């Protein structure tokens, strides 16, 4: 058989795996791979302006398409710039395959130029990582990488490619199948355990479903809604699980956790059976562990054995893919609704509805409500901060909409590049990015990518001149000492002991225009609708809408630090 270089085999492998886009940034150790990509037309190369943006874009592409996101970066700093994005994807179970260039084998370990042990650095934040030491192993390792990334609990895989290995000639054959002795993901559902769980649910007087991100990841939304409607059991979600059932569904209560709805938190605290699906029970949803769902028997379906009983001890564990388990459940369940329980939940909703304090000034909810009204179909990508929590509370996520955010890691700077990746994977769907003025600046260089790729993103910047979420904690718990959160602070404010501050920088509208994008600034409620209508007219370039928000706006409810789900601050 004809022999080909490792570089050619990599490009062949990408085609065999059905890769449509690769998010890449070049360098000395990957220049030969770039050259091979140049010679073909099947895989489109997207060139973001920073490797961190690149991996976030691949991440959102994967989340919104169900495909594996693929990255290519060079060695050294190119590889280390992936670290935050790999950790983001690892926390949120996103399938990525990331190829990093590496110096030639004889230089590894010698402190060569742009050499780092990227496999060692990322071992704890990837599902699998390996340096290819032999050319004959290259095809098998790439095939295994895609298989590992997309099966079981999805996650990021890193393949480190020494330059001399990739230049070496070898077999042109790319494997058709995978057989990894130590990796056999579970593909079945233990029917005995599932029936035991259903029997427990049927006997409950106060049953409750807790839907996590695993339902969205496995695309089990439709079958989950079917199970919910058959049982009549109400639903709370984690933030990552929002959209597991339409947010306008009568059995949906709300999100639970640190900024959860009062009724949702109270439902968890008072239920007698908590049937949870696809959640890690992290600290942001549990509050004090020993007082989480204190009266409940807990059932937990999760694809990852390690996630079961790690934080919360469960009574009935079921290791399975959410979609497979729910499909089986649908065959056995019947109506378990409790009028008394549902009435109690409705009374909590009426007692403390999820609303923001009325404000004459422009409010984040005015903006989110307008998105709800104007977009029947959309992908909403958030950054991290107050705006993220507000979107998770007030954005209507129905079958035509998808909510994408960095959940487990809470990565500021995710929003803009995430929007780029989401739009590239969904060119026919509106993509709305919602960010704070702090997070937006962390990857603002991606205007160049969005403009050159002709992506008509709608970028909403909630500008309150502060790092709002940290400021909220400082206001509530640190005596209003706003240390390191005022984004106008600097030499002038230090020189005048906080008496004077310069004008806010940057001017987001001018910055957008400098890249060839459109910019709109909104001060008042009555300008919001027109701003979105104007943005929708721009079909070839992104539009940034800067909304001037009151710095005093807060996100409520909020669980007190170290408190239980019932220790809610409702307002102040």
Report what the structure shows:
There is one protein chain. The protein has about 575 residues and is α/β, with parallel strands linked by helices. Strands 3-2-4-5-7-6 form a 6-stranded parallel beta sheet, with helices on both faces. Strands 11-10-9-12-13-14 form a 6-stranded parallel beta sheet, sandwiched between helices. It has a 6-stranded parallel beta sheet with strand order 16-15-17-18-20-19, sandwiched between helices. The model has no long low-confidence stretch (mean pLDDT about 95).
Core attributes:
37% helix, 22 strands, six-stranded parallel β-sheet, magnesium, alpha/beta, 572 residues, 17% strand
Brief overview, please?
By secondary structure, this protein is of the alpha/beta class. The model has no long low-confidence stretch (mean pLDDT 96).
